[in-house]
Write a structure and sequence with these properties.
Elements lengths: L2 E10 L2 E11 L4 E5 L6 H8 L7 E6 L2 E2 L5 H8 L2 E4 L10 H5 L1 H6 L2 H12 L7 H9 L15 H14 L4 E5 L7 H16 L3 E6 L2 H7 L2 E6 L2 E6 L1 H6 L4 H7 L22
Parallel strand pairs: 3-8, 3-9, 6-7, 7-8
Antiparallel strand pairs: 1-2, 1-4, 4-5, 9-10
The protein binds adenosine-5'-triphosphate.
Organism: Haloarcula hispanica
InterPro entries: AAA+_ATPase, ABC_transporter-like_ATP-bd, ABC_transporter-like_CS, P-loop_NTPase, PstB-like
GO cellular component, one term: membrane
C-alpha cells in the first residue's frame, strides 16, 4: 500500500506552513522528513495520518484520494496507519495493557466483552502480537511493569510497540528519538528496521541528520514552506542539487534563510 501526498498545501489561520509538497512511502521503505524546527514536519505527518485535511492537494492510498472517500472507508485506511508522537503518553497500567490498547479498540464489541470477562476471572494473558511487538523493542521482560514507572527511553519504545502491535501498513514517527540516549536510540532504530523488513512503510520526522543517514531509504528536506529536495541519503549528503540542502546538512541553514538555491559550481578554468 502506498500512502502519498501530492502537491499539498497546509497552514493555520491564514498563514501558510508549506506549499506544493509531494511525498510517498512505499511498503518496506523508510522515508525521513528532515528540516529545521517549525518547518512543518509534524504538520506533514498529520496530513499523512489524515488527522487533518490539506488546504489544497491530495492525500492518497494506492492512488485513491482519501478525502474523496466515504467516512467508513477513510476510517478503515486510518486504522492501517499508526502514529508515534514525540511524547509517548502512556497510561497508568501494565505495559501489556498499553501495547494492546490499539488492538482492543479495534476488536468487535462481542470479542471485547469476552476478553474483559476473561480478564475479570484472571485467565487473560498478553496476546502473542503484544509479546512480539515488545520483543521487537527489547522490552519483553517489562511486560507486567507499570508503564508510568518506565524511563523516558523505555516509554518511547513501548509507544512504538503499541503502534506496531496493530500490524499497520504504515507507521508515522514524529521525532521518535529526540529525547533518547544513544542506547535507546539504537534500540528504536533497530525496531524501525525490523518493521521495515516486515514490509511496513515508515515515515520518520527527525532533526538528526546522522540518524537520517543511518535509517533512510529516502530523504525529504523540508525548509521554509518548500520541499527543497528528495532522494536517497547518498544523494543528499554527497551530491545535493540545492545549496540549502548542503548548508542544512552542514548545520548552517536556519528558518527564513532563502539564500542560494543552487549549489555553486566551481569556477571553470579560463581556456
Ligand atoms: N495548531 C496550530 N495552530 C497554529 N499554528 C500551528 C499549529 N501547529 C503548528 N503550527 C505552526 O506551524 C508551523 C509548523 O509546525 P510543525 O509543528 O509542523 O513544525 P515541525 O517542523 O514539526 O517543528 P519541530 O521540529 O519543532 O517539531 C510552526 O510555525 C507552528 O508554529
Amino acid at each position: 500500500m502506498t500512502l502519498s501526498v501530492t502537491e499539498v498545501n497546509a497552514g493555520f489561520g491564514g498563514s501558510t506552513v508549506f506549499q506544493n509538497v509531494s511525498l510517498a512511502v512505499e511498503p518496506g521503505e523508510v522515508v525521513t522528513v528532515v528540516g529545521p524546527s517549525g518547518t512543518g514536519k509534524t504538520t506533514l505527518l498529520r496530513l499523512l495520518a489524515t488527522f487533518r485535511r490539506p488546504d489544497d492537494g491530495t492525500v492518497a492510498w494506492d492512488g485513491d484520494d482519501i478525502w474523496a472517500m466515504a467516512d467508513d472507508e477513510r476510517l478503515s485506511i486510518r486504522r492501517q496507519v499508526s502514529m508515534v508522537f514525540q511524547e509517548p503518553s502512556l497510561f497508568n497500567a501494565p505495559v501489556h495493557r498499553n501495547v494492546s490498547y490499539g488492538l482492543r479498540v479495534r476488536e468487535p464489541w462481542r470479542a471485547r466483552v469476552r476478553r474483559s470477562l476473561g480478564e475479570l476471572v484472571g485467565s487473560s494473558r498478553p496476546a502473542d502480537t503484544v509479546m512480539a511487538a515488545l520483543e521487537t523493542v527489547g522490552l519483553a521482560e517489562s511486560v507486567d511493569q507499570n508503564a508510568l514507572s518506565l524511563s523516558g527511553g523505555e516509554a518511547q519504545r513501548v509507544a512504538f510497540a503499541r503502534a506496531l502491535a496493530v500490524d499497520p501498513a504504515v507507521m508515522l514517527l514524529d521525532e521518535p528519538t529526540s529525547n533518547l540516549d544513544p542506547y535507546n536510540t539504537a534500540l528504536l532504530e533497530n525496531a524501525i528496521e525490523r518493521a521495515r523488513d516486515r514490509g511496513v512503510g515508515v515515515v520518520v520526522a527527525t532533526h538528526d541528520m546522522h540518524q537520517a543517514k543511518r535509517i533512510s531509504d529516502h530523504m525529504a528536506f523540508l525548509h521554509d514552506g518548500e520541499l527543497v529536495e528528495t532522494g536517497p541519503p547518498e544523494q543528499l549528503f554527497e551530491d545535493p542539487t540545492d545549496a540549502r540542502t548542503a548548508r542544512f546538512l552542514d548545520g548552517e541553514l536556519l528558518v527564513g534563510d532563502r539564500e542560494g538555491s543552487r549549489v555553486p559550481q566551481p569556477p571553470t578554468a579560463d581556456p
